[in-house]
Amino acid sequence: MQSNSFLEPGNPALMLLARMREPNAGRKLLNFAAYVVLAYLGYQLSGYLYYGGKLLWVSSGPEPDPGTPPFHVRFEREMTASKKVAMMDFPDPASCLTKAEMDDLSTDRLKEMDWDRIDNADEAEVCVFTLLGSYENLSYATDWFEAQGFYVHPNFSSARPYVELDGTLRVTGVHSIRKDGPKFPTSDIIRRAFRSIPYSMSVDATWSKDGKQLLWVQTGFSTL
């Protein structure tokens, strides 16, 4: 009986055919990249779902604790579900600071806001309010803003706060996104595709007429 030499082990043609059937290095790399992208999208989706669950919880459940110091907004309509979630996630000064001696809430320690943990404007407002509101009065505001990398104009500073029509006092810090990059993710992929991109961020901190009580904090963005 005559054997089929083509099927014999070591046949060059058979070995070439086997190599052709094996995925090449480029295909393996593409497959790996696809798995990485899918894993990243899955991670992002899980984050959105988790955050969405918290939004539903604060919308239907009891009001969150106002925190320490108690968080306030200027108008009732500004107490959104997103702000309520931020109040839950950042209930006190220690939760807004970089990880160090958490019991240390000295004047300098309160300047060490952990911006890497801030994901949106509502979280920024809650933490800025919590930290600035922990000081005795607005005299510390300029130093605090400058420690965060903000510019404070002399006419909107602790020494010369802007006087609103109702007599309240405002100190404003401005951060250049164009020059120094965002303090936190100011826009995601969808927003970058369909909306203007901010190039500057401002934070207004408003105190009572005597400058002893922080009333509210508001963030704003200048866009292209």
Strand content: 5-15%
Q: Figure out the total of helices.
A: 8
> Could you give a short account of the major beta sheet?
4 strands, antiparallel
Overall geometry: elongated
The average pLDDT score comes to 80
> What percentage of residues falls in helices of 4 or more residues?
25-40%
User: Within the largest sheet, what's the order of strands?
Assistant: 1-2-3-4
List SSEs in N-to-C order. Answer: HHHHHHEEHHEE
Number of strands: 4
Structural class by sheet pairing and helices: alpha+beta
Distance, first to last CA = 83 Å
Taking pLDDT < 50 over at least 5 consecutive residues as the criterion, the unreliable ranges are 189-195
What gyration radius follows from the Cα positions, in whole Å? 27 Å
Write the layout of secondary structure elements.
Blueprint (H helix, E strand, L loop, with lengths): L11 H10 L3 H36 L20 H9 L3 H4 L24 H12 L8 H7 L14 E2 L5 E8 H4 L8 H6 L3 E10 L6 E10 L1
Antiparallel strand pairs: 1-2, 2-3, 3-4
Helix pairs in contact: 2-3, 3-5
